[in-house]
Structures are given as C-alpha cells and as structure tokens.
Design a protein that fits this description.
Elements: E1 2-10, H1 14-21, H2 27-30, E2 34-43, E3 46-55, E4 57-68, E5 72-80, E6 83-96, E7 99-110, H3 116-125, H4 127-140
C-alpha cells in the first residue's frame, strides 16, 4: 500500500548510529509518536519488540527484527491491530571520517480503512523528522 525509502549522510560514526537504532527502550524519549516500547526479547542478532504509537490514533504492533552489527537492522511484521504488513530496514554504510550513509526503507499495508493522513504520517511526511531525531540522538551519545 505504501513504500518509502530515504537516504541521508550523517556526520556520526556508524557504531553510534547502530547503537541508537537497537536501543529500542529509548525510542519514546526521542522518536515522535512512539508512546511505549516493550522489548519482548533481544540478542546481538535480533529482537522482538512491541511498539505503541500515538499518531492521531493509538495502536500497537510487534516486529521481529534482525541485526547485522553495525551495518543493518531489518524487520518483519509479526502481529498488531493496524498493519497487515510492516517490513523495512536501516542500512548503514561507513563513509570514513566519522560519516555514515543511512538508508531507511519501509513497506506498509494496513487493515481496513485507514485515513490517508495516518498512512502519510507513517511514511512520507514524518520521515525527514524521524531521520533527524535519530541523527541528533546518535550525535549526542
């Protein structure tokens, strides 16, 4: 239903960005719309995380995540009350000199009728702000 991808260069070391991405418990502190996080399990190679979002409407969902330190975090939708599909990834490329190319990709489909405003907020409109929040969090750590 909606796919989006965005690539930016961050003036932050790859390890710092990766560590922010896999620090799921901190998301409510800096990711707009994330109201709660419940890490169901987490290892070096992956995690299962329940996300609580409040974007016009409150909803929860569980993602199964795979980690490839320090270059990739990908996920697949497991269950939830809004999505039929929520798959995506963070791809990180070390450019040297403390710079990292960061690509965020997301492919979502939702159950039933959901206003375009919610889908747009999940994909296009909030993506630049979300990328900025991860960049700033990584730069401050």
């Amino acid at each position: 239903m909606a796919s989006v991808s965005r690539t930016e260069t961050f003036d932050v070391e790859i390890e710092k960005i990766y560590n922010v991405i896999v620090d799921y418990n901190s998301y409510p502190d800096f990711v707009d719309g994330v109201s709660s996080i419940n890490v169901l399990e987490q290892t070096e190679s992956g995690a299962r995380v329940e996300y609580g979002l409040n974007l016009i409407k409150k909803f929860k969902y569980i993602l199964s995540l795979s980690h490839q330190k320090p270059t990739s975090v990908s996920w697949e939708f497991e269950s939830g009350d809004l999505f039929k599909k929520n798959n995506g990834s963070w791809e990180l490329v070390d450019l040297g000199n403390g710079q990292t190319e960061v690509t965020y990709s997301l492919d979502v489909d939702v159950k039933g009728f959901v206003p375009k405003s919610i889908i747009s907020k999940l994909t296009d409109s909030s993506l630049p702000a979300m990328m900025k929040s991860y960049r700033e969090r990584a730069a401050s750590n």
